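Dear colleague,

Following up on Tuesday's group meeting, I ran the structure prediction for the two-component complex that the binding team flagged. I've pasted the input sequences exactly as they went in, so you can double-check that nothing got truncated or mislabelled along the way. The structure tokens for the whole assembly follow below. Feel free to forward this to whoever is handling the docking comparison.

Inputs:
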Amino acid sequence: MSAPSPRKQHEASHSNFIRQIIEADLMAGKYARRKWNGKPGSAFSLHNAPTDPAKIRTRFPPEPNGYLHYGHAKAICLNFGLARDYGGGCHLRFDDTNPAKEETEYVDSIREAVKWLGFSWEDPGGNRNEYYASDYFEYLYQFAEELVRRGHAYVDSLSAEQMRALRGTLTEPGKNSPYRERPVEENLKLFREMHLGRFADGEHVLRAKIDMASPNINLRDPAMYRIRHAAHHRTGDHWCIYPTYDWAHGVSDALENITHSLCTLEFEDHRPLYEWFNERLAEDWTGYDGVKRPGLLQQPLPRQIEFARLNVTYVVLSKRKLIQLVEERHVDGWDDPRMPTLVGARRRGFTPEGFRLFAERIGVAKADSWIEFSILEDCMREHLNEAAPRRVAVLDPLKLVIENYPEGKEEECEAPNHPHKPEWGRRKLRLSRELWIEREDFSESPPKGYFRLFPGNRVRLRYGYIVECIGYDKTTDTVRCTYDPDTRSGTPGAEKVKVKGNIHWVSAKDSFAAEVRLYDRLFKVPHPGAGDSELVPDLNPDSKKLVTAQLEAALKGARPEEQFQFERHGYFTADRVDSTAR
RNA sequence: UGGGGAGUCGCCAAGCUGGUCUAAGGCAGCGGAUUUUGAUUCCGCCAUUCGAGGGUUCGAAUCCUUCCUCCCCAGCCA
């Protein structure tokens, strides 16, 4: 009978430049013939495979060397959201090409964070799709040898400093390395010896042979392999040469059948290189022996698309700055509720639903932008307003005595668990002569416009009676009141007296004390550490406050991560790490 | 001074195969209504203007052109 609310009818446009690209590709059937057998592989290995059931494939490719933060949440929602919306799959790929920096510990935490945000990396065909760049080391090595054979790569024996000197500058072209014209056979021999561990770190490096005069510095013969005698978190000591990001990333995408490879803006001028590598590998090649060899990668090749990374005011997301906060102990660790990490956000009470709403609300584009922190907070409140049951908590308790209320008498007042959801039921609050109220709800000499408790004023005890303040006893720090027995909430005549103020309370006898932590933004300025300025002076000294609150009895059994709205205060979460209910 | 990007309301962001744009939507803000949370919900208001100038056109945020501003790039990091 009722029409949908007009507000819901015209949902905001979710259109963005990435969706347009995908929709155009889908329309053109660009990726429709890709083959897939559930296992990343070369053109040869996929030759007889069936058609890929996933319409598109995206990937979230974190480097397992730190904790995920708000920025990653945006990327996760984007990649997984697109895959979901277009009948595709999104792979979780750990980009672990650098043995010096990566650890297994982070792999677990990243996996958990993605799951927590509500996403799964299983695809329409039922494949698990959890991959590691290190899974492709063998492919990468074989492909690199092939590029050497085809004259597209060479072993350089310059030191890092010498190489830098020859690279040129932003405005001057680079110069060719003296080793650039090494014959193919010699390159092959040296590369194999690099692989075999015959050289020390840094002695040689495999470079793509592109163009030292390119105005794009990434094309000035970029490194593909470096020698690192280091144990890798997954491959152990099996390798002593490791591929660079530029070499490994595009190939990984291609092996995994990725269609749309999304990354941030700083990789824009890496795209020509991304494409160069994949195109060289995908093209057919006729060797000096006259034998034609087919391309190594399935086509069409993945397409890299760049979007603007997330910036949030009052928040710092650079790894360097986050490490500084932890190491210098300005926070209590990576999962401190004030940290912009996902583990921190979770303890803070931020929710997956809130993050997904946030990602949707901020959109995705190519313009650098700063999102106001309040938008993130609003998204969280928007979800919690729906999802969190209401409870009463007095965070800064002040004693109140109802002098005309009989000693020993108790009454049960009913309060709804959610004002707009009667189906959530009601709970009982016990009213007695002595109560705790919020200190800021009383004023001996009220400022203008103050309509809560002050001598001579009447106010409603939420869900209970109307009381009138008759004084304040300084020595016992107690507010004195009388109540009007005819004004009990929910009874006939309760509305006979109109009052503007409505304050919350808990019974002195029935409530319990508990530590409550109040968190505010970590920084007091919108752009902490802007430019190269110091970060520390920008810290908000009041970002964390501990109070001993009086909580209503129903809060006693709160389970870790259970969330509530403390009426008239805001949202609170039982800490999953540290919540000792008393 | 090389190359690659970006500039639409306080903050995001649609639109950019030219007319339906005196520019969508969200957030914030401002009014007002409901309300036992100074909350929520609801209703209304909120860019004659699209970085600036010039041009093409009957008509431009959308096309051309000049200029301005901001961001990224010289790791054997990602």
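The radius of gyration of chain A is 32 Å.

Cheers,
M.
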